[in-house]
């Protein structure tokens, strides 16, 4: 559904200096931020440089605090359930490593898990924890009945990625949440590609833990992310690193752990980037994530439709619900070369190697794919330009001779 008018679209593009210089289809890597986000970061850094770091923080403490409120509004959480991190990997790892597992415990996950998450799962397997992978069915859908069958008294955690890095499908996290709640199993969601693209309501999801980044569909600066930990389960996670932000009444005899999710943070981080994250969340909320999601679906569907008409181009996305990430390959041409040719001509896409989502890629015998990730500020004409270039690439016998003018 194309629910954003041309007038509104032009405003968003005028708000984004990057749109004038490049066609950006790498939003699943890092989006082009709105100018107001960059201006917020730069202005704060300048103030630090001329006024003092601690003094500037004190002066802007209300704005910094408001970032927590904005994130809570974005995901339907309480402000005391939000912690801010430098990236999603730190958020995810802090939560996962804060959980306690015993030999014989079981974790259920999916085939779409990102490589960083698999490193964590690999570590606990070495300690005797069983990791059960639920594979998608032949149509690319997550089989909820298999999840139910896999749950047993030893199941301690259901851990899934909502939208994968190297595929266009989506897991049914609300339905998974209902199952987790029914059986009383802790439930953790990686929403790295979700935040800013797809509406999140942690109450509807019924998740206990959720991690996300700022740089992707939220259009925040790199070096930003956040963690949601439900109030009722915060005491079940042990902070893996602590400083005085997490604790009070500190002595050699012990300390008192603070009563909110910020117990999982460390004090020292960039306040400028925190404000940039808050401004990006505010920008998305002003548009409406529901509306963003509708526009992203429309553009992604258009892209897949156009790709299907190009001989030699194969779209690899499957599943009943698809996201704004479109993965594809060109017959006979290495996907990295395809990516490079598009980038050389001002069209930003990315290469997804087998290492990013190894279980999924091995299952589908993919060594690499090209990833075009659409956002609401992209246009139909940008899609047509990419397709025109792909037609020339696909017709060429050798990428060395493609578009050398």
UniProtKB/TrEMBL annotation:
The UniProt record lists the keyword Transferase: yes
Matches recorded under InterPro entries: Aminotrans_V_dom, Aminotrans_V_PyrdxlP_BS, PyrdxlP-dep_Trfase, PyrdxlP-dep_Trfase_major, PyrdxlP-dep_Trfase_small
GO molecular function, a single term: transaminase activity
Domain Aminotransferase class V: 25-383
Cofactor(s) needed: pyridoxal 5'-phosphate
Top-rank taxon, per record: Bacteria
Sections of the chain in a coiled coil: none
Alphabetized UniProt keyword annotations: Aminotransferase, Pyridoxal phosphate, Transferase
Keyword Plastid: no
Family: Belongs to the class-V pyridoxal-phosphate-dependent aminotransferase family.
Protein name, per record: Aminotransferase class V
């Amino acid at each position: 559904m194309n629910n954003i008018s041309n007038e509104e679209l032009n405003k968003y593009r005028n708000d984004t200096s990057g749109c004038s210089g490049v066609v950006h289809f790498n939003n699943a890597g890092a989006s082009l931020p709105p100018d107001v986000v960059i201006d917020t970061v730069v202005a704060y850094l300048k103030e630090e440089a001329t006024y003092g770091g601690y003094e500037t923080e004190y002066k802007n403490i209300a704005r910094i605090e408001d970032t927590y409120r904005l994130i809570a509004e974005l995901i339907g959480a309480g402000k005391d359930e939000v912690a801010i991190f430098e990236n999603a990997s730190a958020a995810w790892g802090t939560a996962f490593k804060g959980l306690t597992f015993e030999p014989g415990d079981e974790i259920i996950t999916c085939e779409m898990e990102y490589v960083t998450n698999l490193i964590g799962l690999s570590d606990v397997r070495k300690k005797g924890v069983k990791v059960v992978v639920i594979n998608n069915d032949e149509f690319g859908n997550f089989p909820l009945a298999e999840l139910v069958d896999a749950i047993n008294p030893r199941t301690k955690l259901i851990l899934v990625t909502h939208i994968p890095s190297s595929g266009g499908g989506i897991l049914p996290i609300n339905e998974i949440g209902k199952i987790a709640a029914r059986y009383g199993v802790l439930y953790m969601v990686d929403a790295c590609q979700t935040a800013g693209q797809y509406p999140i309501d942690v109450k509807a999801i019924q998740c206990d833990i959720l991690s996300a980044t700022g740089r992707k569909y939220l259009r925040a600066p790199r070096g930003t992310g956040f963690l949601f930990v439900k109030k009722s389960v915060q005491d079940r996670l042990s902070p893996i690193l602590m400083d005085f932000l997490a604790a009070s009444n500190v002595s050699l005899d012990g300390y008192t752990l603070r009563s909110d999710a910020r117990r999982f943070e460390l004090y020292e981080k960039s306040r400028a980037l925190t404000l940039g994250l808050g401004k990006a969340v505010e920008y998305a909320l002003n548009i409406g994530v529901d509306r963003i999601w509708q526009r992203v679906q429309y553009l992604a569907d258009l892209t897949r439709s156009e790709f299907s008409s190009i001989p030699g181009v194969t779209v690899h996305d499957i599943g009943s619900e698809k996201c704004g990430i479109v993965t594809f390959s060109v017959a006979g041409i290495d996907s990295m070369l395809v990516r490079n040719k598009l980038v050389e001509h001002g069209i930003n896409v990315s290469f997804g190697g087998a290492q990013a989502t190894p279980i999924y890629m091995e299952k589908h015998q993919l060594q690499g794919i090209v990833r075009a990730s659409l956002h609401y500020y992209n246009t139909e004409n940008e899609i047509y330009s990419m397709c025109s270039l792909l037609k020339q690439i696909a017709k060429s016998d050798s990428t060395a001779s493609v578009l050398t003018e």
